[in-house]
Write a structure and sequence with these properties.
Layout: H1 18-30, E1 42-48, E2 54-60, E3 63-65, E4 68-74, H2 78-85, E5 88-95, E6 100-110, H3 113-122, H4 125-133, H5 143-156, E7 168-182, E8 190-197, E9 200-206
Antiparallel strand pairs: 1-2, 1-5, 3-4, 4-7, 5-6, 6-7, 7-8, 8-9
Helix pairs in contact: 4-5
Amino acid sequence: MKESADMDGWRMGIEADPIRRFEAALAAARAVDRAIIPDATAFALATVDTLGYPAVRIVLLKGVDERGFVFYTNYESRKGRELLASPQAALCFHWAPLEVQVRVEGRVVPVSAAEADAYFATRARGSQIGAWASIQSRPLDRYATLEDRVESFTREFEGREVPRPPHWSGFRVVPERIEFWKGRANRLHERHVYTRREGEWAVEMLYP
């Protein structure tokens, strides 16, 4: 298949590799003024609990390659606990000014300790301290309690590097289905869906 020249040139041909296509779409979104698209890496992450009840929230993409889509979190948070118990997820990127959506569905696996350590080391020190201080998703009696915990861990790690908390790491969503949606006039939108079959990607168009 011939590669599209840009995100609006879909009729020129469909990129055979959905990861390369996603990277091009992400680059296009990042090129837009941040006043219009503040953070192109933001996406909605959907998970389910052990009873099948869904939950969705916005998180930030921290890496993508042929292995999948990576984000980081506290494993003891609601999303962390749900993903460890039910390791499937759905992602949705929506870049409204470009009239583009990308939906990803797949199984979830933890990243390696080395990957998590490397990313954690790039975070601002305040965010590193926050990862220790926040008992994420648990009840908080008052905000001052969190501030006290931040102060306590700030003192504990004063004068040395902040290590990665053992409960803080990343997940990789290994895609089995990726859909690209492009807004068109009269709601006659274009949809191209990629499905992994025996290790290879098959692509087809869908009615809007």
